[in-house]
Amino acid sequence: MRGEFNGLKSLIRKKNQFAFYVHCFAHQLQLTLVAVAQNYSHVALLFNLVAKITNVVGGSCKHRDTLRGKKIQRISKELEYGEPPIGRGLNQETNVKRVGDTRWGSHYGTLLNLVHMFSSVIDVLEIVTTDGSTSEQIGDALTLLNSIQTFEFAFLLHLMKIILGRTNELSQALQRKDQDIINAMTLVRLSKQQLGDLRNNEWESFMNEVSLFCSKQNIKIPNMEDKIIAQGQSRRMVEETTNMHHFHIGIFNALIDWQLNELNDRFNEVNTELLLCVACLDPSSEFAAFDKQKLIRLAKFYPLDFSPVEIQILASQLDTYILDMRSNDRFSQVTGIGDLSKKLVELKKSIVYPLVYQLIKLALLLPIATATVERTFSAMNIVKNRMRNRMGDEWMNECLVTYIERDVFDTINNETIMKRFQNMAPRRGIL
Asked: What's the whole-model pTM score?
């Protein structure tokens, strides 16, 4: 996870090309944003400016209080004229959030708040330019005022807000503990479809939204037919283009294409199909997810374990297997693939359906990382820190369980814990 063994997956695949591994999809989704930001200078500039805004505006209690005060004044004024919508959850007190390096959703929340509080942010920056404590702080505020009060910044701000919004449900689904593979894969497909629709059908509505925002914030809107010099070109090879071409083709289409390419690369068909096929083994709800064709497809991913003749036998074996499972009451309460394998061995069904059991074993051995796994690694740095670096494995495991599953432990009252501890061994005192 720390990148200490670069290319480890490729080295393993050279030894065995059928050694599949499904990396954490929540992490892969985050990597798409990182890749786009690193390879597309406009996005990198946007997030650099957003980071500086949070440092200047939210860098002190005084500035945060000023920001909240300006926002309250604007809401009160708009309420007098009946401009903002009134309802539960609307017009609440907010602040500019700091972007988290490894949280896709934090980027989306930061951009939403910045759009919502843009006028108040401008007011605070103007105050800092006159009342700043240092010349460096005043200089940063002046630079930000000149940079963010431009059409290009507003354009990028709204574009990234929409792109992140189209994938926000996917991000939330991939970070759940009880991750539903089929629903997650459906959301991956829908996110790609929504980005494609944004690129092909929503340019005009997007431009109307940006133009309305700029008009409200007194930001000059350029004439889209005016000629401009393309940035990044050699002065000896100057290429003129229009503002329309620059914003529509050079930024809007190009950025969405980058995002779609990264999503297609990170969520490739092999990993997606592997997960959907494995999900068909789930015994929950009387084997409702069972799909014979997908399970045969899963067997074909492992030609060293299933010969062409065995795949034909498997096709016939699956028909008998599913009838047996659905008619046997002993399998009605089985909820996971692991429990299913135990029950098959217990009832000697693993001998009756050897190829199906082999398929289940391969599914159990397939390494699939989830957000829960990555959170566990992060928790290790908290539980076993520099001051507790001599902690043994058994004690660390017990601490990690209570830390990671703290939602469960919060439901247990202290009286129950004390009684359990008191009954473990004879003790002189009574707790």
From this structure: 0.67
DSSP H stretches of helix in 17-150? 25-39, 41-57, 61-81, 104-116, 118-131, 135-148
Among 181, 190, 165, residue whose Cα is nearest residue 112: 165
Tokens for 8? Answer: 């480890």
- Pairwise CA distance, residues 197 & 215, whole Å: 26
| Closest C-alpha among 51, 73, 86 to residue 120 | 73
pLDDT digits (tens, 9 = 90+) for 107-121: 788 888 888 888 888
Mean pLDDT (whole number) for 76-94: 46
**What torsion, rounded to 10 degrees, do the Cα atoms 54, 58, 60, 65 define?**
160
Q: What does the alpha-carbon distance between residue 223 and residue 225 come to, in Å, rounded to a whole number?
A: 5
What is the amino acid identity at position 60?
S
Tell me the longest C-alpha to C-alpha distance in the chain: 90
Beta bridge partners of 368: 22
Model confidence at 123, pLDDT cuts 50, 70, 90, reads confident
Q: Which residues pair with 229 in a beta bridge?
A: 240
Sign of CA pseudo-dihedral 37, 39, 40, 41: positive
